[in-house]
Amino acid sequence: MSFDDRKRAIGKVVSVAADRFVVEMHSGTDNFTVVGFDDVHYVARLGSFLMIPAQAEYVVAEVVGLRERDTSGGGVSDGQLDKVNSAKYLDVVPVGMLPMQGAGKFRFGVSLFPSLYADVLYALDSELDRIFDTDAAVVPSIGPGEEPCDPADATRFRNLAIGQSVIFEDYEVKVRIDDFFGGHVAVLGNTGSGKSCTIASVLQALFEKPDEHHARGATFVVLDVNGEYHRAFAELPDKADIGVQRVILDGTAADGVFRVPHWFLDLSEWELLLQASERTQVPILRMALGMATLFGTNSASALNTYRNHILATCLTQILGDETPPGAKETRIRGILQRFRTAEINIAALNSWITVKFGNMTALESAYDFLAGKDGAGGFIDPDLKFPDYDGTPFDFTALGDAIDLALLYQEAHGNRQIRDYCAQMVTRFKALDERSDYGFLRHDADESHTDVASFLSGILGLTAIDGGHTKAAQIIIIDMNAVEDEVVELVSAVVSRMIFRLLRQADPRNRFPVHLLLEEAHRYVASTPSRYAMDASRIFERIAKEGRKYGLFLLVASQRPSELSKTVLSQCANFVVHRIQNPDDLSQIRQMTPFISDSVLRRLPSLPKQHALVFGNSVNLPTTFKVRSAAPLPASDDAKIVDLWFHEAGRPSLLKLNSAGAAAAAP
After folding, report:
1. When comparing pLDDT for 71 and 619, which is higher?
2. What are the C-alpha distances in Å from 81 to residues 10, 68, 70, 357, 594?
3. Range 427-438 average pLDDT
């Protein structure tokens, strides 16, 4: 052992077991502190690390318990402990190995156990850097294709400081950026424990890098259900070359608000939105969406061909069935009042379908007109195939007409009860067509700037340049504070699915990382099926399982981990956990982190505000830290109850109401 090692010895190992050691500190040590040659070390803090030499390596051990015992023999008459003669003991658990020399890296697990009476040393800052692998926070940048960068002296972050250790004085806790942002992250904690401030602080630290290069390639899409992040990030563009965009979803179709064209929904999302049952309603809905595609095309003749085919098929079925002539006429006239074309209408068929003296004398003429005769004429084409739904723009109301046509077509083939079976789906569609909070979804087919490429470029903060796109914004906030959870689920599911599909089809793959920040994730990424039509958990569970290889990552923030999707939580590689007191939530964290010791988890209920435990791939060992202060803070401040309650009579209320009784919009 070197001379410096002997100078920092604090005690000796007096008990060795596979999972726990006992250290007796040297006599004369007061209050479990040691004045070392480099600093004062508080070696007996729970969670601190000690170094135990074992051949050419150190065994790294975590302090999990403190004890003191009187060794004076006779004791003290007043019952007080004799501080001079007492022995002090530390209970420690081994966590890994660290090479003594060079820049060897820390590794989990103990391959060599110390002998009895081996010296125990306090940890130096340089060893902590090696344990946490944070010795080089900034490294030189590289240009595209490994070419020299511009400017030549530009740097990039390798590690990111997220706060101060509560165990080691003046020691910054850092996470490896590649490991932290290269996987899914969960930020958990009770309400008011500081989750939003932690997220804001981490992103501010990332984007407020003082020198070139800034994190211009980052893309954070913030699904902000509480409207709190705009304030936290509003000053970033002034501090660094970083863009922040905010769009507001209030459910309306007003100018300047965020809207999602309804033709962006895929088949499965339409099925969920309209609550279509698999057996009867889904086939009708798929046929209707395919026909709605025709409504959105410029080919009026193609659409008319399908309309004539459907009408002719339906009417010939009625003409050929066994119902009385009077019933035939009534049904045909009822259909032609709702559906007609320039070729097939009441005027064209009136003389043939009119019943005289109880008979429809010109039935055959009507049949020949509709179906043709001797293989010629007519409007029925047996080879006609209905188009598939392909996302072609169409007017929202056109889908209602298409559903009616699809039902009519099925009725023409003898399925008389199909309209009753689909009544619930039809009612649901009519409700969506009338509800004001779904105005954001209803578009006209001829509206501009509603193509997928333009929509996604805005969501991802891209702007067009010659030959491609460049980043205009690194943080894109979708403010959904004004809408209900049902709309939040729909928008979050559709936007996330579109981004996921884009990145899956990208070539080259995994070269445009995107992070989805899911605030209050338990509201729409739940462990139980959603009570609304749209279940956003499906797409987020798929992103959790497959998104990493395509460069799509989740940053999940929630106060109820027990209510979050277990699939999403199980795929998170890093966790930042604030104070959690609910037993169900604590149990959930224990289940998903079996490698964390009970002594670490027992700290969670008593963590102060702005303190958290970080563990996962980005840090070698679980670490409790005080989160770097966010400035400015997100709009999630605690209410100043005393200030707001006690004041003079007649002071105007700070709550502004509009004429409808709702709170006025904030400026």
Report:
1. 619
2. 21, 9, 6, 119, 39
3. 93
Q: What's the first-to-final CA gap in the chain, in angstroms?
A: 66
C-alpha 64/C-alpha 61 separation (Å) is: 9
Whether omega for the bond prior to residue 387 falls within 30 degrees of 0, making it cis, is no
Task: Please give the model's pTM, rounded to 2 decimal places.
Answer: 0.86
Check residues 29 and 178 and name the one with the higher pLDDT.
Answer: 178
Q: What is the mean pLDDT of residues 25-31?
A: 69
Give the pLDDT of residue 573. Answer: 93
- Of 587, 537, 546, 590, which is closest to residue 564 (Cα–Cα)? 537
pLDDT at 379 over 60: yes
Q: What span, in angstroms and rounded, lies between the C-alpha atoms of 612 and 624?
A: 6
- Alpha carbon of 170 to those of 45, 78, 89, 451, 541: distances in Å? 15, 40, 26, 53, 40
Amino acid 492: pLDDT: 94
Q: Are 160 and 173 in contact (CB under 8 A)?
A: no
b/e per residue, 404-435, with b = 16+ CB within 10 A? ebbbbbbbbeeeeebeebbeebbebbeebeee
The confidence score (pLDDT) of residue 1 equals 58
**What is the DSSP-derived secondary structure letter of residue 440?**
T
| DSSP code per residue over 388-439 | PP------HHHHHHHHHHHHHHHHHTT-TTHHHHTHHHHHHHHHHHH-GGGT
Tokens of 516: 């989805």
> Cα separations (Å) of 89 from 68, 84, 634?
6, 15, 45
Q: Are 163 and 628 in contact (CB under 8 A)?
A: yes
Report the distance separating Cα 174 and Cα 163, nearest Å. 7
Largest CA distance in the chain: 127
Backbone φ and ψ for 487, nearest 5 degrees, come out as -75, -40
| Residue 38: predicted pLDDT | 53
| Whole-number pLDDT of residue 37 | 47
- Cα separation, 215 vs 207, in Å, equals 6
pLDDT tens for each residue of 557-570: 999 999 999 999 99
Angle of helix 396-412 versus helix 300-320 axis, rounded to 10: 30
- β-partners of residue 623 are 614
Rounded Cα distance between 384 and 294, Å, is 14
- Residues 6 or more apart whose CB falls under 8 angstroms from that of 196 comprise 226, 228, 229, 232, 519, 557, 634, 636
